[in-house]
Specification:
Layout: H1 2-31, H2 38-60, H3 65-83, H4 90-113
The structure holds protoporphyrin IX containing FE (HEM).
Protoporphyrin IX containing FE is lined by residues 20, 23-24, 27, 31, 37, 40-41, 44-45, 47, 78, 81-82, 85, 96-97, 100, 103.
Protein name: DUF6220 domain-containing protein
InterPro entries: DUF6220
Keywords: Membrane, Transmembrane, Transmembrane helix
């Protein structure tokens, strides 16, 4: 069971990483007015839901301290990502982009940690 959940965690983190690349593309579509930011907003919220599922899988599968820690960090970063835009300070809003990089880095770490776990 532990092995299966570890594999599920691995494949889900690959899916999230792929969706993050698409999310950056959607941001670009918004910036260059090829589409509205709505799709970027919805994908961001779906990514948050997926990251919570990823954390639950890590916890149930007892995938190890590092994987659980970085899965929690991914949830935290994705949670604060929209909040950064709701603070009326351009400086804080700009952190949305840097936090986006932190999200990609965290997810990349999770993908490359498999199957070592701890
Ligand atoms: C991991 C990557 C990212 C995630 C998960 C993410 C997520 C989100 C979410 C959830 C929102 C909606 C906020 C809300 O309305 O409450 C949003 C809005 C926005 N994002 Fe991102 N974002 C990411 C990267 C980027 C990047 C790289 C840019 C670069 C331009 C960007 C630009 C924006 C802008 C300008 C808005 C506001 C759109 C509006 O006017 O409603 N985001 N993002």
């Amino acid at each position: 069971m532990k092995r299966i959940l570890s594999n599920v965690h691995y494949f889900l983190s690959i899916v999230i990483l792929f969706c993050l690349v698409v999310e950056f593309f959607f941001a670009g579509m918004g910036v260059f007015q090829a589409a509205s930011f709505k799709i970027h907003q919805i994908t961001g919220m779906l990514l948050l839901v997926c990251s919570v599922i990823l954390l639950i899988v890590a916890l149930i599968g007892r995938t190890g301290g590092k994987i659980i820690g970085f899965s929690s960090l991914l949830v935290l970063f994705l949670f604060i990502q929209p909040l950064l835009l709701h603070i009326n300070q351009p400086f804080v809003k700009a952190i949305h982009l840097v936090n986006g990089l932190a999200i990609v880095a965290t997810c990349t770490y999770l993908v490359y940690s498999w199957p070592k776990g701890d």
